Thiamine-monophosphate kinase (Methanosarcina lacustris Z-7289), 674 residues
Amino acid sequence: MKKTKVSSIGERALISRLSEIFNAPEGKERGREGILVGAGSDDCAVLDLKGEDCLVVTTDMLHRTTDFPVEMTPWQMGWMSAAVNLSDIAAMGAEPTGILMAIGMPADTEIAFVEELAKGIQACAEFCETAVVGGDLDTHAELTITGTALGKVKKSQLLLRKGAKPGDLVCITGYTGSAGAALKAIQSKKPVSETVLKALFEPIPRTREARILAESGAVTSMMDTSDGLAMSLYDLARQSKVGFRLREAALPIHPEVREFASGPGELLELALYTGGDFELIFTVNPARLKKVQNICNLTIIGECTKYETGIVLESPECRLTIIEQRGYQQLKAETAD
Amino acid sequence: MKKTKVSSIGERALISRLSEIFNAPEGKERGREGILVGAGSDDCAVLDLKGEDCLVVTTDMLHRTTDFPVEMTPWQMGWMSAAVNLSDIAAMGAEPTGILMAIGMPADTEIAFVEELAKGIQACAEFCETAVVGGDLDTHAELTITGTALGKVKKSQLLLRKGAKPGDLVCITGYTGSAGAALKAIQSKKPVSETVLKALFEPIPRTREARILAESGAVTSMMDTSDGLAMSLYDLARQSKVGFRLREAALPIHPEVREFASGPGELLELALYTGGDFELIFTVNPARLKKVQNICNLTIIGECTKYETGIVLESPECRLTIIEQRGYQQLKAETAD
């Protein structure tokens, strides 16, 4: 076992091993008093700020070859680097309070490139009504950007992956599968509209929707869909101990993505198993549905069931199939994209 | 100018350009309300927590080839990655409240390696009485670790690079030049003691000393010496608008480093112009010197002068020479190490 490579166990299994090292330091509790949610279980860690607020914080590392399609402009790389982190802040129902950017770049990078990158970062931070507060610059063979975003939220409004109950409705903002369709179009050199490409190149963190949803008091669990809808369902299921039944006909898919897909099989593949969409998936107490229905662009796509029922998709003909646990995962040879 | 490479202007000049993009978004102030200290000027950014506390946060990216000598164990790489960030928290006089670690690694990295790395991170976090609260795992050609550390400090106790006044005494914790001597020893394959090697491989963030110093009320400015003593003096000078006169005979140099150096010239080079020591350099109001004198291991190495006087070193024969503005700097061809 000692010689096992990380690629053979995948990102989530490795996270779980490392979380054990970080969370269980020989039973010592010193230095852990303020930690409400630690490493591994949610989009962000949550720290107690003593008063009514808590601090949420997240970090994400991106690399040029693996995370930025060659068609992306430096501005878009900057935007994306900020967006992945701000989307995690949104996933907790929090309001962003700052972002830090560590940038490693080849020594022969042109200053104009770095300035465009910075402008993209700044534009995304501004869009989310926050600011770049710090960072680090470093030389590195490949462009590498690690962002860290901070946010705050009232403890009473904090949204976790845990909290969904059987009977809750499952909702999603925006569309699913658009970023995946854009990536597929690029890889297969098929034409696709600017709108679909933008979903991949300039994903919009749902920070505004997140705040409205958190304030509504109707949401029982939430996360973002950046690793794909299926992976998100499995993460919510594991933390909340629920199952899910989704209705295929209800999945919000952009008309141009429907047009792009070669058939219903590919469409479903895009909608469920591709990453890159920065939408929010969340569960709503049905008694409080009215509180969220008209406050943001959301679609009800199914409901929470008992854990034992698993995660299933209901076709228009009422046939049930199992939604598989796959999607975007780092460190794994068999990732979907 | 547009085609200029980043290597031609160096880290500090590039930081200053990017800070302009991040700090002046077309005059908009939205999202900037809580920022007490923004990108670029200090070891950490400082955010207002509304109550009496403020939040300090910093991020640092390390790469295997450039930041970890080949002699380092994975445990030491982990320790170091946590230590660079926790040292920045100490530099602000703050108490660490959590650390996040984004790790990019080759897919064929052995799990045992990653686990050792994690244990080193955990050990350093525990030493500083804090914990790893989050992170990210990623595949990457070269091992890359970006840490982010958070801390808190009462606004009244926050220590910045700004605040030193002419007449203040300049102090430093521990020794200067030890990490530089260790690196030199490795590069030139000269033997050196375990103690000196440890200064480079397992640097100790001065988080405890920092808290005591901040609470004393006697310290007027502070930062860490990770980029070298000379660079730190220039950073303090720029922010505080003071000059410095250091006494050569007062510089605290480890006996084994004195023994290692080939002569007084090399000794001074190590003490002033090499990075990697994670000591605190700070200025003290002389009227309050007694408040700090016996609370931690410190050495008075000189005093603050008027800005116009520059940064000078006084030899045992009372001869003054200018301390140069060089040391450890990323993105710069002519870095000292």
Q: What stands out?
A: The longest strand of chain B covers residues 53-63. Chain B touches chain A through 86 residues (CB under 8 Å). Residues 160-322 of chain B form a domain with the Phosphoribosyl-aminoimidazole Synthetase; Chain A, domain 2 fold (CATH 3.90.650.10).
